[in-house]
Amino acid sequence: MSEFHESERRTDGLDVAALQRRLAAFAAARDWQQYHTPKNLAAALSVEASELVEIFQWLTPEQSARVMEDEVAAARVEDEVADVLAYLLQFCEVLGIDALAALSAKIDRNEGRFPVNGGR
After folding, report:
1. Does a structural domain hold residue 108?
2. Residue range(s) defining the domain that contains residue 40
3. What is the pTM of this model?
4. Is 3 a member of any domain?
5. Within its chain, how far is the Cα of 84 from the centroid?
């Protein structure tokens, strides 16, 4: 039997839609949907992204590349990544955006805008 890392176990079988349902249920149980407007979710997303940036603000490039080697810093980074993703998924849910389809379409456009050879 193969051994799994804890992070692999936590995500086994999860997908974007399942996470969005879980976030919606969490908010509904607390009657928070009234606050989950596109404007508020975009602002919250920006705040959480800024909190992620704050972790790296005064690190050298070398220190930032090794941030996950420090247990405390790694936990902070993971928490902020989770907050950013949670607010992004809630934002997409409220506006009816398929996040994965939007990302795929953007990659397609970028591949056209920035070809491998000669696009400089």
Report:
1. yes
2. 15-113
3. 0.83
4. no
5. 5
